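Re-run with default settings, no changes from the original entry. Doing this only to confirm the output is reproducible before filing.
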Amino acid sequence: MTTPDIASTTTLEPKTKLSGKILKTTLAGALVDVGQSIPGVIHISQLSNDPVNKVEDVIQEGQTVDVWVRRVKKDRIELTMIEPLALEWKEIEPDMVVKGKVVRLEPYGAFVDIGAERPGMVHVSELAHGYVKTPNEIVKEGDEVEAKVLDVNRKKKQIKLSMKALEPEIEEFKPAKKENKREKGNKRGPKKEVNEMPPQEEDKEPEMTAMQIAWQEALNKSNADRAFKVKRQKSNVSQEQEEILERTMKKRLPTGG
């Protein structure tokens, strides 16, 4: 017995789509010619998503069908007529980028079909940068979107996605910092020392301060008061001398008889 040549089957990967012809049906499934050196086999459980009681209820001998590769063995290629998921649970990892279609909107987020068993959910806070009140402000049902996987819970079969993680962050506007003159001078180089004194205007009397002006006015007033007192004292002395002289004259003059 010769060993089947499987060289041509080594390039077949799981989920590869093929077109084949039904060669024979059995109680357990069917044999399919998919153009390889070994036959393809479809188990009855892989004919449809719905339960199948009889193979002939779904396929007939000679019929051409679309199938997908499940696994390749030495003597056969196991096939399925159920389109496989684009992403199996074991294939979904955090930080991977996925594409999908928005299939449902809720007040708290959007559900995206990424080809997994269940849609992934983009929380409203992960739809875009900034405040988003409701998901329909950003997306609508039927939109094709791209998202990043934040977390996957295989036990609960939950996939958390983010659309804003793939968008550049919007930088807040910040006014330019005013450059300090001293710093600006330092950037240009060390400040040169200046030994020369600034030129002064010749024959210009220095301006008096308010304090100096007040002091000068007080001094002038004091001098004026002093001069007035001296003059008054002199006046009083002169008047007193005149009175003495007048009394003396009266005493010496003979009285008329």
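Strands lie at 17-25, 29-33, 40-43, 64-72, 77-80, 97-106, 109-113, 120-123, 144-153, 158-162. The chain is about 20% helix and 25% strand.
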